[in-house]
Amino acid sequence: MANYKLTHIDLQAPRTELHDLLNLTGMELSFNNLPAGGAVPFVHKHKENEELYLVLAGSGTLFIDGEKLPIKAGDAFRIDPAGCRSLQAGPEGLTQICIQAKAGSLESFTMGDGQLVSDGPQPEWVKKG
Amino acid sequence: MANYKLTHIDLQAPRTELHDLLNLTGMELSFNNLPAGGAVPFVHKHKENEELYLVLAGSGTLFIDGEKLPIKAGDAFRIDPAGCRSLQAGPEGLTQICIQAKAGSLESFTMGDGQLVSDGPQPEWVKKG
C-alpha cells in the first residue's frame, strides 16, 4: 500500500469535501466558494469537532453565538464545538476552507511529531552531508 | 470565554503556522509560499500525524518514498505518518497549505458530528420556519 493518496479538485466549485476522496482519518476539509450574497442557510454547532476556517478570497460575515463579525481574505478562525455559527458572503463572494478535527486530539505536531529521514532515498534538492 | 478565536495572516508570507495563533487542539495548519525553485530542504515523516496538503497556486514536485510526482494548483494529497516526503516548487512557485491531525482520531464529521441549532439567536440570512 502506498503511503499517500492524491486527487485533483476544482478550486472554483461551490463545495468540495476531501474526507472520502482521500480516505482521511484525522480530519475533514471542505473547500467552499460562496457566491456574492450567498450564505450557509442554517446555524450549526458540533458534538466533538473543532473547526478551523481560513478565508482565501473575498469577504463576508461570520455569525457566532449571536455576534456578527466582518471577515476577509487572510482571516483565520477556530471555533469550539459549542459555538453556534453561520457564514454569509459579501458582494465579492467568499472563498474559504473549513477543517474539522476532534477537539483535544492533537498530541504533538511539527518538530514534536515529525522526524527527519536521512537514511533512505532523497530527492536531488536535499543536500547531502 | 468566547467559543472562537480569530486572527489575520499574510497570505503572501513564506510560512505561517496557525496552531499557536489560534490555540488549536485537534490540528495544525501551515500556509506556505515557496518561491520558484525553492524546496523543503529535508525529507521527513511523522510519528502519529497524517498530513493533508492542498495546492492553491503554482506547481512543483512531491517526493514521496523515493517517487517524484508533479503537483499543481487543485491537487490535494493525504500522506500517512510513515510516508517519507519532501516538496519542491516549480518555476511559478508553489502555494500550499499543510494540515496535520492525529491519524485515526476523527470519529465522525459533518452530518455525523454537526448539529443544527434553531432555538437560539439566528442571523437574518437564515429563514425562519
What does this 3D model show about the protein?
Chain A has 129 residues and is mainly beta. The first copy, chain A, has one helix at residues 19-22; strands at 4-8, 15-17, 28-34, 44-46, 49-64, 67-72, 75-79, 85-102, 114-116. In chain A, 3% of the residues lie in helices and 51% in strands. The first copy, chain A, has a domain at 26-102: Jelly Rolls, CATH 2.60.120.10. Chain A contains 1 helix and 9 strands, in the order ββαβββββββ. In chain A, a hairpin with a 2-residue loop joins β5 (49-64) and β6 (67-72). In chain A, strands 2, 3, 5, 6, 7 and 8 form a 6-stranded antiparallel sheet that branches. The first copy, chain A, is globular and about 55 Å long. The model of chain A has no long low-confidence stretch (mean pLDDT 97). The interface between A and B is large, with 87 and 87 residues.
CATH architecture label name of the domain at 26-102 in chain A = Sandwich
Strand content of chain A: over 45%
Chain-averaged pLDDT of chain A:
97
Distance between the ends of chain A: 31 Å
CATH fold-level label of the domain at 26-102 in chain A: Jelly Rolls
Helix content estimate of chain A? under 10%
User: What's the CATH H-level homologous superfamily of the domain at 26-102 in chain A?
Assistant: Jelly Rolls
Which shape of chain A, going by the Cα principal axes?
Answer: globular
pLDDT < 50 runs, ≥5 residues of chain A: none
For the secondary structure, the number of strands of chain A is: 9
> Which H/E pattern describes the elements of chain A?
EEHEEEEEEE
Note the main sheet of chain A.
Answer: 6 strands, antiparallel
Secondary structural class of chain A: mainly beta
Q: Using CB atoms under 8 Å apart, which protein chain pair has the greatest interface?
A: A-B, 87 and 87 residues
Quickly name the level 1 CATH class of the domain at 26-102 in chain A: Mainly Beta
Instruction: Note the total helix count of chain A.
Output: 1
Rg of chain A, nearest Å: 18 Å
Oligomeric state of this protein: homodimer
